[in-house]
Design brief:
homodimer; 26 helices; 23 strands; about 40% helix
Chain lengths: ~750, ~750
């Protein structure tokens, strides 16, 4: 039975159309003038020895982004987007990623830097490649599309209990057929997606006005000239042919075999494929799409996926000779004029028809049909192909270099529009997005175990850690969470440990609270429900309360909760101390929503201007919230003798809210460096007393310059928060942002190598 | 200004009536024949060096229960009750606590064992006491009532900012006045509460038919004969007088001074009182009340509290000479015939009137007035006093020893009526009650930080640990909790670590689930909503499902949740493995509610009989729930061809429920010893994979005798529970109960010394 028949007989269509997808995308680091950046690989990306996502290929300047395998293209693109954000935001401000397959402005051959890594054999291999092919050819960059069927599908195919070996044979036969037909028909992909029509003078001295579909896929690009020496008719032959090429020194190592389809297995050696089977196939012929910020569009991936499925689904199959013919057709296509129709157009239409049938028979999503329609249109209209579009733009008078600078800079810029979000993961909590960003950057292997729960699995040098909500980890204990979740318990623990907590009492009845009035009658006090946080039911007496005032406030508080707290009121400013791993990594002052006059604008105009700040958004999708112009703000202005229409004198600050919450338009001001160290030490010691590694402590400190001392504690601690927000420290209205998520990672992996 | 005036002027009445209360109660361990138990102090009570609650006094057989100081009498009694439960349930089954002050049947003088502790100086001191007073006198037991005002009150009194020394003076003067008047009027307490009318022949050879109010308070009891040599007029004089008694060898050590009122301070030496002030006062004249299971009734404590307040509140004050007079009046009262009126009745009425005024002026609870009324009645009716009541009982022909055995055994028995609850803390969760029990038993200092949150603070050799809900501790990590809280994440973690989890998939739409039917069509499966636990929306297909059956089950599951799981169904019995600290400490099998026939009773009668088991209760206030006779049970019987009226043949087991939950009347069967070790090892390893110290793992094990092996895993893990219930393992329907709370304590304090 053919695979197709097995799938149909067993009703496995829905599993057949699933896959495990991975993309590897190279890209040259480039300076602002379009030259190859000669700087070292950024240290912020950590150690390349461990990095699963951000690597270098031949050259120190040649970035390679590797997405982890995922079962849907959607997920695949989440990671591809995220990796682009990570790279764009982390690269030196004077560098960007070159958007073309054909290189940027290269220096002289000898000045092109080979990778500088600790493994000497890796460098040696590149040096051999350099002397064999020349360095410049190695600088051509591309996209590899990795595909395998899911384990579920393999399992379902093998459900009549095949042996391990029989399953390996089955996989090999599937992927070999896919490869044979791919190699035979790859020219169509080059026609559609070829995107390397020209090169810079520094790549090739030959002056030429000729445009191509794909220099990279052409004999002018970088090819093994011996791909016809490897058979795809059986796995044994495939493996032995590659081994022979190594034995007779045609290849330096097996990995030098750059066939457009490369079978990959569990083991490192090609021979392992025979016994263990093919696990996935690397398709390597894709140019970088310079018109997509990710270098390969989602539609291209969809088309490629369907193309690959069709390669199995079709009845046709091909001999090695026909494969070689396919390779020639691909080269011929690559050398075609982008504006001319394909010389193989008729076959192209056939293939698209087969793809269309495949999609229908497999009941694939509509979008798959749409990409076929698009391809049909491109076969009819060559001027719409990628290569033709690029040439059209160049013909307006731009050089390859100029165009590359323009596109590359533009793509980099998009990653800075909302620097607090991580493209691909924008639906997650901001703190989790920040942590993901740093994990990807630093080379920590990461997967999302549960999106709704913000549950990540991290792994670095095989040490697994789990993180929930950005900073809930194995480093904190179960009980410390519960201590902080209970304000009274927190206060008892901190007080017992000798820290300044507001004096006060918890009451469970009005009478009980009234009986204790004497304790409070000569002090400023706060009366509040035990369990609310939002200001409801809270009364503040900055001067000692009268019995009447006290009685009324107690009554109000009991309307909100069955337990109330009467606490000393401490005058002074409240600061959030963010403690991670026994260190205060950030101190934040939050100010109520406010504007400062300029002598000409109305308050409404000032608000509107302030709200334009990129950090201000709505509904917790940004580190700061836009200031509202509602009733509360209006009332607050009125009390101060203003309206939204008042023109505010220059330098005059007007508050629009009493409360300093960020969620009601408050400002965040970083005070990490300004806060006296003695208070930071106290915060660290309190975290230790609570036996907690990550906490946000709210302290009132009347004078941050006057050191705390035994006869002048100079602070009082109001609250200890578990799972404190990190984003509000990272992106502040004023002062330096503090990267706390990175500190979470270094807490989990102290050995991680940092810049 | 007097204290009274200060209190009234400053409106401090409500603080004045508060206090910090502590009770120390001695009691001789006794064998079933009424003889002094000559066994060592039970090892289960741990090391007496650290034990804050369960101590010994003079003799190895003389238990001393010490309650921690608490701010209300209610709390005081919680601890007193709990300590009695702990002692009663822990003592050897052939021993009980003697309920009288006058000793049980004593052996010869030389056979009475002095305490056997590691500190030699403690033993030496007792040996000196023995040779000075004779051992038998030391065996008289009593109750000490410790009292101080609250820190709040002292703070409020000192609110015009007294120096530390002035505050010390103030406290000393208050407690001295309290002591002077107490000593002057103590005879009234002896009249009311005296309860040692007789002694056994082994205590005193003198044959006598005379009954007394209190042998213990009389010259026949155990007294220092030099109490008149210590002045209570100033703290300096008090301290120096005691020092002089030690210097001239009248006293062995300061602590030998056994005044009926003893001032206690911060330091160990009496001299420290001068500079640091009195912190509390020990009132030592109380006989054990044999008619109360705790040895001192709540009403006695209330009376004593009010009596002490009145001693300060009254204008009267007394010289040392008058105090000495008071001591003589107390001895005279002690020697009175219990059935005769007091010779000081008139003064007694005066004191009660003063107490009544005090209670009124301080607006104390009604119950305080009630205890005064009771006392008034006792002054009028001496035959109603404790001593007279005891004598009345003895006159019926019981010996002191017989009566003591009767009462002591009865009190011990009450602690076994509900052995899964801890008297005083019965409103807390059962697991927390069990933990409290073991903490008190093992000598871990314990306080309840929050009753509603089941939040305990433990301390042992100064190492503090917090526990919530019985087993949530610092030994588990924050993240392990969240892993277990998410079933899908738990499954992923366990599967990745190589354990057998039911194969299956999570689906988010009906279509998606239907598309995957092929994966399940040849296996038994369970289809269930992701987030429910109670059986709702779950379908089980023990034989492979038809597409129609599968479709319907998917639809039902989606009615309950937006995500569903389709999992392999594993045939076999489910066991709960309770892992603590890398060891399986209990394995439990839960069986659905059932009865077994005896050939004569109806099912209704069998249920009723089974429900009489003391472990069966309602609404989670017992380890097992009573079997209900509701519609579900009726239906289940009907399906098996029975009704509640059916008479069941002998040995026939009939189930009344499908589900095995304890909460619906299920049985708990301990299988810890029966389960093959290989599965226990797997459970331990899984807990390690989850990085958790306390977890309840639910495993299906088809054959508990056939060892797990690589080619026969023999189990599948269904769930990992955080904060698993402990009580259902401790009190089981069948098999041995397992004490898990003790294991929690030894996990927290590995150094704790155990029997």
């Amino acid at each position: 039975m053919t695979i197709k028949e097995t799938v149909l007989t067993n009703n496995l269509q829905h599993l057949f159309v699933k896959g495990s997808f991975g993309i590897e995308k190279e890209g040259l680091r480039t300076d602002l003038k379009g030259n190859l950046a000669l700087t070292p690989h950024p240290e912020a990306f950590g150690n390349r020895k461990h990095h699963p996502y951000i690597q270098t290929d031949f050259s120190e300047s040649q970035l390679e982004l590797v997405t982890p395998p995922h079962e849907t293209l959607q997920e695949q693109y989440q990671w591809l987007k995220a990796l682009h954000d990570v790279v764009n935001r982390t690269l030196d401000k004077d560098e960007f990623v070159w958007p073309f397959s054909m290189p940027n402005r290269l220096p002289k051959e000898e000045a092109i830097p080979i990778i500088d890594v600790s493994d000497k054999s890796e460098i040696e291999y590149r040096e051999q490649l350099a002397s064999k092919y020349g360095k410049k050819k190695q600088m051509i960059s591309g996209v590899h599309f990795n595909f395998s069927f899911t384990e579920e599908f393999i399992e379902a195919l093998a459900q009549d209990h095949l042996t391990e070996e029989e399953t390996a044979d089955l996989c090999n036969e599937m992927y070999l057929k896919m490869s044979r037909n791919f190699l035979r028909y790859q020219w169509l992909l080059t026609y559609l997606f070829g995107a390397s029509p020209v090169s810079d003078d520094t790549y090739s001295a030959e002056e030429s006005n000729t445009y191509f579909r794909s220099i990279r896929n052409s004999p002018l690009g970088y090819h093994n000239t011996f791909s016809n020496k490897v058979s795809y008719q059986s796995i044994r032959q495939y493996a032995e042919d590659i081994e022979t090429l190594v034995d007779d020194k045609t290849l330096i190592e097996e990995r030098e075999y750059y066939g457009a389809s490369r079978l990959r297995g569990k083991g490192k050696m090609v021979r392992d494929l025979i016994s263990k089977g093919t696990r996935y196939v690397e398709f390597r012929s894709f140019d970088i799409n310079p018109l997509d910020s990710l270098g390969f569009s989602y539609e291209q991936s969809q088309f490629t996926h369907l193309f690959l499925l069709t390669m199995i689904w079709m009845e046709r199959d091909h001999s090695d000779k026909e494969i070689e013919e396919g390779a020639q057709m691909n080269k011929a296509t690559a050398l075609e004029n982008p504006f001319e129709p394909s010389q193989f157009k008729k076959e192209g239409i056939e293939i698209l028809n087969l793809m269309s049938e495949t999609a229908s028979e497999l009941k694939m999503e509509d979008s798959y049909h749409q990409v076929i329609e698009k391809a049909e249109s491109l076969l009819e209209n060559p001027e719409q192909t990628l290569s033709a579009k690029i040439v059209t733009e160049l013909k307006k008078g731009k050089s390859h270099i100029q165009y590359g600078i323009e596109l590359g800079q533009q793509y980099k810029q998009t990653s800075f529009e909302k620097p607090f979000l991580l493209n691909g993961f924008q639906e997650m909590e901001m703190s989790t997005q920040l942590l993901l960003f740093d994990a990807l950057k630093m080379g920590v292997e990461t997967s999302v175990l549960d999106y709704n729960d913000q549950f990540l699995k991290l792994s670095y040098t095989n040490k697994v850690e789990y993180v929930r909500n950005g900073n809930m980890t194995s480093k904190d204990t179960y009980i410390s969470h519960w201590i902080m979740a209970n304000k009274t318990v927190t206060k008892k623990v901190l007080k017992n440990a000798g820290y300044q907590v507001p004096g006060g009492e918890e009451f469970t009845s009005e009478q009980q609270a009234l009986d204790h009035f004497v304790l409070f009658r000569d002090k400023p006090i706060v009366i509040k429900p035990k369990s609310t946080n939002y200001g409801i039911g809270i009364s503040i007496f900055k001067k000692p309360a009268s019995l009447d005032g006290y009685t009324e406030a107690v009554r109000l508080a009991f309307q909100e909760d069955a337990q109330i707290l009467v606490e000393e009121y401490i005058e002074g400013t409240e600061y959030r101390f963010f403690v991670i791993n026994d260190k205060v990594e950030a101190v934040l002052l939050r100010q109520p929503a406010n504007v400062i006059g300029n002598g000409s604008d109305t308050i409404e105009e000032l608000i509107s201007e302030k709200n334009k700040h990129p950090y201000r958004g709505v509904k917790h999708r940004a580190p700061l919230e836009k200031i509202k112009m509602g009733e509360i703000e209006q009332l607050m202005l009125k009390e101060q003798g203003y309206s939204f229409d008042s023109i505010l004198e220059k330098g005059k600050q007007v508050f629009l809210r009493e409360n300093s919450n960020i969620s009601t338009g408050g400002d965040s001001i970083d005070m990490t460096d300004e806060m006296h160290d003695s208070y930071k030490q106290i915060a660290v010691d309190m975290a230790k007393a609570l036996e907690v590694k990550v906490t946000g402590l709210d302290l009132i400190v009347p004078d941050i310059n006057k050191p705390s001392a035994s006869d002048h504690p100079g602070y009082v601690v109001i609250e200890a928060n578990f799972n404190p927000a990190m984003h509000m420290h990272a992106f502040v209205q004023k002062g330096s942002g503090r990267n706390l998520s990175e500190k979470v990672i270094t807490m989990l992996y102290p050995s991680i190598e940092l810049s």
